[in-house]
Amino acid sequence: MAMKLLVLNYEYPPLGGGAGVISQYISEGLAAIGYKVTVVTTGTDNLPDDTQTGLLRIIRLPARRKFSYRSNPLEMWSWMRLANRFLNLHLKTEKYDLCFANFSIPGGLVALNMFRHKGLPYTLISHGHDIPWFFPRQMFWYHLMLYHTIRHVVLNSRLNFVQSDEMKRNIDAFTGSVFSSKNVIVPNGWNGSVFAPDYSKRSSEFVVLFTGRLVKQKDPFTLLKAIRMLNGKIPVRLHIMGDGPLRKKMEAFVEKHHLTEVCQFYGWVGKDEMLVQYQSAALTVLPSLSEGMSIATLEALACGQYVIATKVSNNEALISEGKNGNLIEIGNHTQLAELIQGFYHTKFMKGFRIDEHELHRYRTQYNWSDIVKQYDRYFVSLP
Questions:
Q1: 110 backbone dihedrals φ, ψ, rounded to 5°
Q2: CA-to-CA distance for 210 and 202, rounded, in angstroms?
Q3: Residues near 342 by Cβ (< 8 Å), separated by ≥ 6?
Q4: Which is higher by pLDDT, 135 or 375?
Q5: Strand, coil or helix: what is 93?
Q6: pTM higher than 0.85 for the full model?
Q7: Got the DSSP string for 291-329?
Q8: Alpha helices of the chain — where are they, by DSSP H?
Q9: What CA–CA distance (Å, rounded) separates 311 from 116?
Q10: What's the pLDDT band for 121 if we cut at 50, 70, 90?
Q11: 192 has pLDDT over 80
C-alpha cells in the first residue's frame, strides 16, 4: 500500500525561496515513486486553493502574506493558526502514515500539535537558521525566545533531516548526544530535467550572476563593493536575479557609485529565465553569510558555471578550488574582486570550461531523483 505523506511548509512555489523549492522537489519526487502526498501551504488570491496532479495534492490556506519572496513572524503565525484549525478537521476524515514538516517553526510546531492531539508521527527537515544556534548573528533573539519550543519540536520528531556536516554538528549540540542518531544528513540536489550546460549560449560579454533573496543573509553588498572596485578595470556586467527588502538600498548604492550601466536588476524570474542566465553568464557569485545547502550553488554548478562562494555549510564539499570555483572569506569584497578579476584574465578570456569529469562527478552525486530515494529509505524504515 502506498504511503500517505502530509507535507507542511508555509512557503511552496511560487512562494518562498530555496526551502520552498526543496519542498517541491521532494514532494514531486516522492509522488513520482508512488507516495500519496498532500502539501499544506500558503495561498494567494491568484493561486487555486486545492489542486491535484497525479498523486500530489496541494492545499493552500489563506494566511496573511504580503510578499512572495519573504514572510515575517506574524504571517507565519497566521499560517500556523489556520493550519492547526484546518488539520484538526482534515485529519478526522483523512488518514496519513507520516508528516514531513519544514522548519522547526512554523511547520514543526504544527506537526507537534498534530502528534499530540491526533497521534500523527512526524519528521522534520531543517533549512538551517531554524535551529539554534546556526545563524546567531541574525537569529539570536528569535532562538532565545523560542529555544524550549524548538527543542520540544526537535525531540518529539522521529527523524530530523539536515543537509550538511555543519548543520549536523549544530543540531547534535542542540539535542544532546543521546538524540544524535535521529539527526541525519540528506543533501539537497539539482533538477536534472531542467538545469544542464549549453555552452553555445555562453555570452561573449563578461557577465557575473547573483541569484537569491536580497536580504542580509545573502550579503549582496559584498558583491556590489567588489563590482565597484572592478568598474573600469575589466568590462564586467552584473545580473542580479531575485528580490527582497535590500533592493532599494542596493539600487541607491548602484546609482551613487555610477554603476547603473554595469548592474541590472531582474527581480524574481521563473526556471526558464534562470536557466538562460546560468547558461549564458560567465560566473556566479554567492557571498552568503550562512546557508543550509544553497540551491543556487547546486543549480549553477549543474549548468557548468564557475562559482565563487563563501565557506559556509556544504559549499566546501561542492566547490573544488580552482576547478569549478573558489571559496572566499565572509564579507571580504577585496578578495572577491581579486578573484573575479583573476577569473576574467586567466579563464574567461581563454574560453574556460569546467572539466567534464568534475562536472559528471558533481551531477551524479547531487541529482534530486537519487536524493528522493534516500528520503524514501528513511521513511519506510521507520517502525
A1: -65, -40
A2: 16
A3: none
A4: 375
A5: helix
A6: no
A7: -SS-HHHHHHHHTT-EEEEES-TTHHHH--BTTTEEEE-
A8: 18-32, 73-93, 109-118, 136-156, 165-175, 220-230, 247-256, 271-280, 295-302, 315-318, 333-346, 356-365, 368-381
A9: 40
A10: very high
A11: no
Residue with cell 553555445: 200
**Per-residue pLDDT tens digits for 29-55:** 999 999 999 999 999 888 889 999 999
Percent of the chain with pLDDT over 90: 68
Polymer length of the chain: 383
What burial letters (b/e) apply to 45-72, b meaning 16+ CB within 10 Å? Answer: eeeeeeeeeebbbbbbbebebeebbbbe
Cβ atoms of 127 and 16 closer than 8 Å: no
Fold of 199-365: Rossmann fold (3.40.50)
Using alpha carbons, list the distances in angstroms from residue 191 to 63, 66, 211, 267.
Answer: 29, 29, 16, 22
**Can you tell me the mean pLDDT for 125-140?**
81
What is the three-class DSSP state of 4? strand
Closest CA to 37 of 56, 54, 21: 56
What confidence score (pLDDT) does residue 259 get?
Answer: 97
User: Hey, what's the cell of 352?
Assistant: 574556460
SS3 110: helix
**Model pLDDT, residue 168:** 93
- For the domain spanning 4-189+368-381, the CATH number is 3.40.50.2000
Tell me which H or E stretch contains 59: strand 56-61
Task: Please count the CA atoms within 13 angstroms of the CA of 289 that sit on its side-chain side.
Answer: 18
CATH 3.40.50.2000 in the chain, residue ranges: 4-189+368-381, 199-365
Crossing angle of helices 18-32 and 368-381, rounded to 10°: 70
The rounded distance, in Å, linking the Cα atoms of 322 and 338 is 14
Residues in CB range of 37: below 8 A, 6 or more apart:
5, 7, 27, 30, 31, 55, 56, 57
Q: Grid coordinates in use for 331?
A: 564579507
What is the average per-residue pLDDT within 349-373? 85
Least trusted range by pLDDT, from 2-6, 70-74, 93-97, 287-291: 70-74
